[in-house]
Design brief:
By secondary structure, this protein is α/β, with parallel strands linked by helices. The chain is about 25% helix and about 15% strand. An eight-stranded parallel sheet has the order 11-10-9-5-2-1-13-12. The chain has a five-stranded antiparallel sheet with strand order 14-15-16-20-18. It has a three-stranded antiparallel sheet with strand order 6-8-7, with no helix packed on it. α6 packs across α8 and α12 runs parallel beside α16. The chain is globular. Bound molecules: 1-O-alpha-D-glucopyranosyl-D-fructose. 1-O-alpha-D-glucopyranosyl-D-fructose binds next to loops.
């Protein structure tokens, strides 16, 4: 019996950081018409949904994550008419639209906050979180995620307001029913406008410990540990369920949420099939890879503890615990091929290996713009090239206070700052890389002259064409989407081996990956080799040509990736054709 799966399990999603994708009005900033004009490219890649970072009106203190009008489109990105044309055209081309919605906070330039801060009895005052100071300072010792205190003083009312992020991003007070009603209206507005799904930003923060206690401090800490009081509190689930119950009534509407501090072991709290909360949860497993105790210290990547443990852990959750996104990078991380692959010695091979891994995993793949052409970190950025608000606020904390030298801080930014993943899309080798003829809002990565879409499209065995082939194979072999995953050699330091198998399909799939820059050998376990009889094993895709046939002892080149179809002895089925 074929069960009709929701569309959001079947698609491959392409995440677009709008600001950096394609500028059509030559202001140096990407815009919605730029995405409209790129639909043929998206169709050529083969993706069938896009997820856009916030497009609502914003003063861009945090580049769209500080919203000043939830019903408008950011001036730099275009108009509501541009939005309507984009979503209509996307749907005409069979592409779904997932909207990033920031409802944990607003901009301090939102009319609600402008009103709220004028007086303690203003009708909008309680939409935000206010507390009296203590001993001449903030109400408690919480830091913000972007550096400095999580509280800002407001003179007109002689009190402080909470901002977990920048001081221009005051947190909403979800205990206020009127506020929640306004949030529901915002959701209904965009659903009525045709969006197919939401990605709720920082959704795990919408409930706070209303006692606002000081967090525990270690010797030398400037701030307390605030995480237990602002992240994943039980009340978050009540709020999400209420929003979904009252405002999201379309049966196949997709709801994703970003939630740090959650792993595959406890994601069911948000995504369990009967939770009526999130369909998928964006975790921070990939964000933390290589990230030391501070945001600027890089540590060696332990393959098993990170990639293998995370991907297998998420893929083997029971169905009842919900579905998963499958991703490496987004707008808060760095470039995949630089953080996880090897952009210095094996850029192409590692980019393709990671594509094969991502697109043979169970879940919904989210491909971050530019990863499909192997874009890299901006290794030559100077401090003045960065635009991320966190860079400058943390500079105060880390460098001015003498914790780290300016040189080490810049090195850390090269490895770990999220602006690495926000440089303009590299369309061609011309000045401006085909992104804009104006000075871009953030400098181009200077390797655009060799790494660009035009070059990739002209090269048959390019990273782009590898992604394109893998997306196609995933679509015609649904076991790669829905099948269960069995991992082998879990303790191997270099090689990741797993199979994907369906409940009824006679064909299963074997994936072999060397996720390191050194050659690797392994002996496949007997319960796997018993099934590997040459006539029934077909190599479907590899990132190296002319490799030897599969045997029980495998020898993989640096970053070598192989996808095999194994036809078992069960009766034939339509998907068994390779
Ligand atoms: O990021 C959320 C975020 O960074 C926090 O949730 C935190 O890092 C995490 O909980 C740690 O466990 C989102 C957006 O993705 C980011 O781009 C924005 O800057 C931020 O929210 C503020 O809107």
């Amino acid at each position: 019996m074929i069960i009709k799966q929701p569309w959001w399990k079947e698609v491959v999603v392409y995440q677009i950081y709008v600001r950096s994708f394609k500028d059509t009005d030559q202001d140096g900033i990407g815009d919605l018409p730029g995405i409209l004009g790129s639909i043929p490219y998206l169709k050529q890649l083969g993706v069938d949904a896009i997820y856009l970072n916030p497009i609502n009106k914003s003063p861009n203190d945090d580049f769209g994550y500080d919203i000043s009008d939830f019903y408008g489109i950011m001036d730099e990105f275009g108009t509501l008419a541009d939005f309507d044309e984009l979503i209509r055209t996307l749907h005409d081309h069979g592409i779904r639209f997932i909207m990033d919605l920031v409802i944990n906070h607003s901009s301090d330039e939102h009319p609600w906050f402008k009103e709220a801060r004028t007086s303690r009895d203003n009708p909008f005052h309680d939409f935000y979180i206010w507390r009296d100071g203590k001993a001449g300072g903030p109400p408690n010792n919480w830091p913000s995620f972007f550096g400095g205190s999580a509280w800002a003083y407001n003179e007109a009312t002689d009190e402080y307001y909470l901002h977990l992020f920048s001081r221009k991003q005051p947190d909403f007070n979800f205990t206020n029913d009127q506020l929640i009603d306004h949030i529901k209206n915002i959701l209904r507005f965009w659903i009525d406008r045709g969006v197919d799904g939401f990605r709720f930003d920082a959704i795990n923060h919408i409930a706070k410990d209303l006692e606002f206690p000081d967090g525990p401090m270690k010797p030398g800490d400037r701030y307390g540990d605030f995480i237990p009081f602002v992240q994943n509190l039980p009340k978050v689930h009540d709020y999400i369920r209420e929003l979904r119950r009252d405002a999201i009534t379309l049966p196949d509407f997709f709801v994703a949420g970003e939630a740090g501090g959650i792993g595959f072991e406890n994601a069911h709290l948000y995504t369990a099939q009967d939770s009526n909360e999130l369909d998928v949860l964006f975790h921070f497993d990939m964000h933390s890879i290589g990230r030391g105790p501070q945001d600027w210290l890089r540590i060696p990547v332990d393959l098993r503890k990170t990639i293998k443990r995370s991907f297998t852990g998420w893929a083997t959750r029971p169905d009842t615990e919900g579905w998963n996104p499958v991703f490496y990078s987004n707008h808060d991380t760095t470039r995949t091929v630089s953080r996880i692959g090897d952009d210095a010695h094996y850029r192409e091979a590692s980019a393709k290996a990671l594509a094969l891994l991502q697109l043979t995993q169970r879940g919904t793949p989210f491909i971050y713009y530019g990863d499909e052409i192997g874009m890299t970190n901006a290794w030559d950025f100077k401090l003045t090239d960065y635009r991320d608000i966190a860079v400058f606020q943390k500079y105060e904390e880390q460098v001015v206070n003498g914790i780290v030298s300016p040189g080490d801080y810049l090195t850390g930014l090269h490895y770990l700052n999220r602006d690495n993943a926000r440089t303009p899309m590299q369309w061609n080798s011309q000045p401006g890389a085909g992104f804009s003829t104006a000075t871009p809002w953030i400098p181009l990565n200077q390797n655009y002259q060799t790494i660009n879409v035009e070059a990739e499209l002209q090269t048959p065995d390019s990273i782009f064409h590898f992604y394109q082939t893998m997306i196609h194979l995933r679509r015609v072999h649904p076991v790669l989407i829905h099948g269960s995953l069995t991992e082998y050699l879990p303790h191997h330091e270099q090689i990741y081996v797993y199979t994907r198998q369906g409940e009824v399909e006679s064909t299963e799939y074997l994936i072999l990956l060397n996720l390191t820059s050194k050659p690797a050998q392994a002996e496949l376990p007997i319960d796997l080799t018993n099934r590997l009889d040459p006539p029934v094993v077909a190599l479907m895709l590899s990132n190296y040509p002319n490799r030897p046939p599969l045997e029980s002892v495998i020898s993989l080149l640096p970053w070598e990736a192989r996808l095999y179809a194994i036809k078992s002895l069960k009766e034939e089925d339509p998907s068994s054709t390779v």
